[in-house]
Amino acid sequence: MRTLANVTELRTTPAIRLEGVGQIYGAAGDTVVAVEDVSFDVEPGKFVVLVGPSGCGKSSLLMMMAGLRHPSGGRILVEGKPIDEPDPDRVGVVFQEASLFPWLTAEQNVEFPLSLKRTLPKTERLARARERLDLVGLAGFEARYPHELSGGMKQRVSIARGLAQDPPVLLMDEPFAALDEQTRMTMGDELLRIWAETKKTVVFVTHSLTEAVYLADEVMVMSARPGRIIDRIKVDLPRPRTYEMLGGEIFGRLRDRIWRQIRTAA
Ligand SMILES: Nc1ncnc2c1ncn2[C@@H]1O[C@H](COP(=O)(O)OP(=O)(O)OP(=O)(O)O)[C@@H](O)[C@H]1O
Q1: pLDDT tens-digit profile of 103-116?
Q2: Residues 63 and 113 in one domain
Q3: Rounded to 5 degrees, what are φ and ψ at 28?
Q4: Does residue 173 fall inside a structural domain?
Q5: What pTM does this model have?
Q6: Does residue 239 carry a pLDDT above 70?
Q7: Cα(38)–Cα(46) distance, rounded to whole angstroms?
């Protein structure tokens, strides 16, 4: 039962909490400290973007938040509970490469994670997959195979798949990096629309500072390896974000500040 106490607790529980998280790769004598002592909270419904010099540990952080890797130190909580393994009910993931199964249709690709749990009947799973494809603007493309879809459409399918189980958190690792500039901008707007509709908490990794400022409520800047959070920049631009804002003074100031941080950190 939802009492006032647990509703209040739910409101105050961060969607994601990192406490002193580290990641060390390799074995004795040959180790790489990729991430060191990272702590932060992400409030529910926020759009956070992670930037930093190449190799600073952005993907490593995301993999740990997704439960795909265990931290070497510290701990990660999603909705107040540790994440020790992938849990698509709590965390959806979208990678740079669409990584769709080529032998499955768009609808079957989205249905796939739902079929693993076998808790929903097939008709329900397909209805949910269709609903997600509709959400990402792919109604009418359910029966297409990945090779029949453009790069942007494949990433839309990936987003639909990441949202298949309606997780509160969506992690995105450079999801638009392989797309041409125009498609990338359109996808940014599409993602913001989906985010506004679904109210997910998003953590998004990118190398593009323009994309970072355009999308984020907050940009977290990481240092060069070992990756630590060296700056957290609130983006106070109004929403919806528009193309015109890109040339504005606030936008330029924020992008400059991030760039200066990255340049000194690299
Ligand atoms: N499985 C692994 N084994 C050993 N070292 C690894 C492994 N994965 C990552 N690393 C190293 O850890 C560091 C951080 O890698 P990671 O991919 O997390 O950084 P990144 O910031 O996402 O990089 P990029 O910006 O280039 O995508 C890098 O030096 C990388 O070489």
Answers
A1: 999 999 999 988 88
A2: no
A3: -45, 130
A4: yes
A5: 0.94
A6: yes
A7: 19
Bridge-based pairing of strands 91-94 and 169-173 is: parallel
The answer on 126 and 207 residing in a single domain is: no
ipTM, two decimals, is: 0.97
Same domain, 158 and 107: yes
Q: Which atom of ligand 1 is nearest to the CA of 56?
A: 21
Same domain, 63 and 172: yes
- Closest Cα to atom 12, ligand 1: which residue? 34
Q: Which two tokens stand for residue 245?
A: 């804002």
CA-based nearest residue to 63, from 28, 29, 38, 31 = 38
Q: How far apart are CA 77 and CA 10, in angstroms?
A: 13
Query: Which residue is listed with tokens 């998004």?
Result: 204
Q: Residue 46 sits in a domain of what CATH number?
A: 3.40.50.300
Residue nearest to atom 3 of ligand 1 (CA): 25
CA-wise closest residue to 132 among 180, 167, 178: 167
Ligand 1, atom 1: closest residue by C-alpha: 25
> In the listed set 166, 194, 211, which residue is the last one of a domain according to the structure?
166
Are 159 and 177 in the same domain? no
Q: Is 60 touching ligand 1 by the criterion CB < 6 Å?
A: yes
Contact assessment for residue 221 and residue 230, using Cβ atoms and an 8 Å cutoff: yes
